[in-house]
Specification:
Keywords: DNA damage, Methyltransferase, Transferase
GO molecular function: methylated-DNA-[protein]-cysteine S-methyltransferase activity
Number of helices: 6
Largest sheet: 3 strands, antiparallel
CATH topology of the largest domain: Arc Repressor Mutant, subunit A
InterPro entries: MethylDNA_cys_MeTrfase_DNA-bd (IPR014048), MethylDNA_cys_MeTrfase_DNAb (IPR036217), MGMT_N_sf (IPR036631), WH-like_DNA-bd_sf (IPR036388)
Pfam families: DNA_binding_1
Protein name: Methylated-DNA--[protein]-cysteine S-methyltransferase
């Protein structure tokens, strides 16, 4: 699929320091947010929910304390929503490990990681704040240490002021 065809999947594409964020809408709801590499061109919002989401994503990129308030599609299983609720309780600038979240909700670290990877609304549900006990962990179902997705995770954590971990000192390039 070329970039132009891929862009057609989104109701808006917002430029970000690490690439872009694709916004999919359905009816009056935001259906999905997707991290996109920099070769995706910005796309003006095509409907009201995309306009609202694009404005809020842009606000977050300027201010990491910004709180999202979007009409989200009902995604995920009951278990995934429990994990996502626990993720939303992690303060900006902080991280928790998969194991810490698992203990909190009475689950297993691998299951928490799978729920993180199934997150339809990154940024809104800040799964980038969840790491492995010994390092960065994966992100958006990717674990390539030098890949695009983990570079996005590093950028987001630095944007939010999470500087206590050595894995954040790695070079971020886009």
């Amino acid at each position: 699929m070329n970039t132009q065809q891929g862009s057609a999947l989104f109701s808006a594409i917002v430029e970000a320091p690490f690439g872009a964020i694709g916004i999919r809408t359905e009816g009056d709801l935001v259906r999905e947010l997707v991290y996109l590499p920099s070769h995706y061109e910005p796309k003006a919002p095509q409907d009201a929910p995309a306009e609202q989401a694009a404005a809020q994503v842009e606000q977050y990129l300027l201010d990491p304390d910004y709180t999202f308030n979007l009409p989200l599609w009902q995604a995920g299983s009951d278990y995934q929503r429990r994990v996502w609720d626990a993720i939303c309780a992690i303060p900006r600038g902080s991280v928790r490990t998969y194991g810490q979240l698992a203990k909190l909700i009475g689950s297993a670290p691998r299951a928490v990681g799978q729920a993180c990877g199934a997150n339809w609304f990154p940024l809104v549900i800040p799964c980038h704040r969840v790491t492995a006990a010994g390092g960065l962990g994966g992100f958006s179902n990717h674990d390539d240490e030098n890949g695009f997705h983990l570079s996005v995770k590093r950028w987001l954590l630095l944007h939010e002021g999470a500087t206590a971990s050595p894995w954040l000192q790695q070079t971020i390039s886009f």
